[in-house]
Design brief:
122 residues, alpha+beta, Outer membrane lipoprotein wza fold like, 5-stranded mixed β-sheet, 4 helices, elongated
């Protein structure tokens, strides 16, 4: 009986061990995830109030709303300043997100936007 109890104790002790670096990494990841969520929510709120929000390497993250605004126009207005062209574009509208390959714009396909859209350039 003592042997079974000893084995259970060892199994629980080994399974529950976490190094300080693992714990720190988990804390950092949780913090960054929360920070990203808060920034995304702020961008959505700002976009709904004033137009379209663009997150990523842009000089002007707020694009005023005008009728007929397209994705290409919004990115041009935001003035993309990234070292490399974005590879992905994520459009969030009313809480629903769609991911596209950025090459879609180079192929000449443009997407109409709506007031309150949030565009993320990755």
């Amino acid at each position: 009986m003592k042997i079974v109890a000893g084995i259970l104790f060892l199994v629980l002790a080994v399974a529950g061990c976490t190094t300080k670096s693992q714990a720190r990494l988990k804390e950092q990841n949780a913090f960054l995830a929360g920070q990203n969520m808060a920034l995304h929510q702020q961008a959505q709120a700002a976009a709904q109030a004033s137009g379209v929000a663009i997150t990523g390497a842009v000089q002007n993250p707020q694009v005023p709303w005008v009728a007929g605004l397209t994705l290409a126009q919004a990115i041009a207005t935001a003035n993309y300043i990234g070292a490399e062209a974005p590879k992905q574009i994520i459009i969030t509208r009313q809480g629903e997100s769609a991911t596209l390959d950025a090459k879609v714009l180079l192929d000449g396909t443009d997407i109409p936007l709506e007031k309150g859209d949030v565009i993320e350039l990755r």
